[in-house]
Amino acid sequence: MKKKMKYTKITPFLSLAVLVMLAGCQATSSDTVQSAESDATATDSGTTVSAADYDLDFSSDDLEVGYDESDSTTIQLADNQSTSSGEGATIDGNVVTITTGGTYLISGTLSDGQINVTAPDTEEVHLIFDGVDITSSTTAPLLIEEADKVFVTLAEGSENTLTDKAGSTATLGTDADATSIDGTIFSKADLTLNGSGNLTVNGNTNHGIVSKDDLIIVSGTYQITAAGQGLSGKDAVKIKDGTFTLNTGTDAIQSDNDQEEGRGFVYIAGGDFTIDAEQDGIQAETLLQIDGGTFDITAGGGSANAVAKTQEGMDFFAQKADEEENADSDEISSTSTKGLKSVSELIVNDGTIAIDSADDSVHTDGNLTLSGGSLTLTSGDDGLHADNDLQLSGSTVAITESYEGIEGKTITISDGEINVFASDDGVNVSGGDSTTTEQATGPGEFASNSENTLVISGGTLTVNSSGDGLDSNGTIEISGGVTTVSGPENDGNGTIDSNGEATITGGTLMATGSSGMAVTFADSSSQASVLYGFETTYEAGSEIELSDADGTVLLSWTADKNFTSVQFSSADIAVDETYTLSVNDETFEVPIASIATTVGTTTGQMGGGMQQPGNGGDMQQPSGEKPDSMPALN
Q1: Is 292's pLDDT higher than 80?
Q2: Does the pLDDT of residue 618 top 60, yes or no?
Q3: 432 falls in which pLDDT band (50, 70, 90)?
Q4: Beta strand 345-348 pairing with 448-449
């Protein structure tokens, strides 16, 4: 069982203040470049991990790509004829061993050889790759056994290639504590790569670039093909910039230290990434934070490889019970095929991200925060998933394909532009410890979970779902923003589905869907809302308008699918006033009798919670021509 850590997001304004304060207190602050835009706080067994415990900075040494050739040891590689001018390197056949700290300028080719760094753990080693091509049939072409830290700089304009052959099984150490050398570049020390050259890594045995400490990449162009992972840093992977093409048999980028606080994280400040991973695109054991960059990620072959899910042939209540039973059992399988994944915390502050994934596109067992950037998600399961809290506060999100669009224990939408297309629920709030505030009292009813809340206070949310449009096992609160829902065509789901109270106090709602499981807002709402049910089905593409007594259009939208009911709310709608609802060329009179008004024919649940079907309203006489299927009205 992996140890999990729980995080709470600190706002960017506070995090900047914290960073400034820390910079003023640390004597070495001039040697680091502050890069983090946000911070996190973690708790595990009562121990607090502060934002400062995550080192999201890049040091001045990490950024340094210059060198003094006169102070460097020059190494010229050649099969059985390698040479070294200067101190600190020894040559034995096709193995070059670097034993002391310093700068080493390296070029040339070894058809079956290695560079091995064995410097004291108090000394730094700087390797300049300027046209290096090394293949090894038995081990890592670049092996770093020991050093304080190693820097690999890709010289400007240089082409460099490192290749291991499939089947190599080299190890370090004795049998008792042997370490498998499982990377084409394998380092037991902190490793930084930078420069403006190109590096191609062919990891035919296992991983591409591996550091058992921190793996830091500042710049450069990288083409990595690996049977295993592409970039692996046990303690951390930090990327400031660069161009990356990663084709991997498992995860493309991973950090997996779950034993030490402030470790096991992935931080990306920028860069261009093209990722094709047979498993996860980017995976972190604790924090995954993206502050910039362009990402094109395919995970597990994409959504076309998803396990098929369907509602067909399943009794509605049996399906609901099954969903409840499995809501909080979203375990990471042995073969995980997610786009972005973290165990504890996932934050996106900026960047342009496109993901096509067989499983969830963005997934965390902890909290998910999207405050900026653009995400286009094509998912075989959930578009966005958080086992705990999910916050959308400024990102542009387009979920073009998913089973469930957005899922979390709590979901808060305060800003941003969010578009969701889902074959089941569009927005689903579920999971947690099942603490209830209201128990079910009869067949077909479901208890309300006090931990589950959907809060919409701003932004633009557009949902097209075959299942429930907005679904909460607890409560729904809408106080702002513009929400448009094209809900289910079947009567086994509802445009809005809330086990607890659903209230609206502000914002704009425009929705269409079926009427069989429709839920109205509660009388405790402070903004008027209307559920209008029809006795006929209107086709997708129908134009819907709501006008006041003066003919002013208050609401206008187009239905994406067939529908038998509409639901709407606006600050412009008042109780005791009468409005005109238009569907294409037909018009209907809508008197607002109460804060939550039901008009027409519905068979759904009333009052903002799960109740027994059959509480229909009285059909109002339309003021326009009746459709052919509508019976004469009294």
Answers
A1: yes
A2: no
A3: low
A4: unpaired
What's the token pair of residue 624?
Answer: 């326009």
Q: 469 CB contacts (<8 Å, ≥6 apart)?
A: 425, 426, 427, 463, 485, 486, 487, 488, 494, 495, 496, 497, 511, 513
Cα within 13 Å of Cα(527), Cβ side: 18
User: What's the CA gap between 492 and 424, in Å, rounded?
Assistant: 11
In degrees and rounded to multiples of 5, residue 293 shows phi and psi of: 115, 170
Tell me the residue type at 109.
T
239/248 Cα distance (integer angstroms)? 18
Count of CA atoms in the C-beta half-sphere (13 A) of 196: 5
| 3-state DSSP percent of the chain in helix, strand and coil, to 5 | 5, 50, 45
Q: Which residue has the tokens 């902190």?
A: 190
Q: For 524-549, what is each residue's pLDDT tens digit?
A: 999 999 999 998 999 999 999 999 99
- pLDDT surpassing 50 at residue 214: yes
Instruction: Give the C-alpha distances (Å, rounded to integers) separating 592 from 519, 521, 550, 573, 616.
Output: 17, 14, 16, 8, 16
pLDDT of residue 632: 30
Is residue 427 pLDDT above 50, yes or no? yes
Find all residues with CB under 8 Å of 548, minimum gap 6, and list them: 554, 572, 577, 579, 580
Counting residues of the chain whose pLDDT is more than 90, the rounded percentage is 74
Q: In Å, what is the CA distance from 499 to each residue of 382, 387, 417, 437, 612?
A: 21, 19, 26, 10, 12
Q: CB neighbours of 422 closer than 8 A, spacing ≥ 6?
A: 383, 399, 402, 403, 404, 405, 463, 464, 465, 466, 467
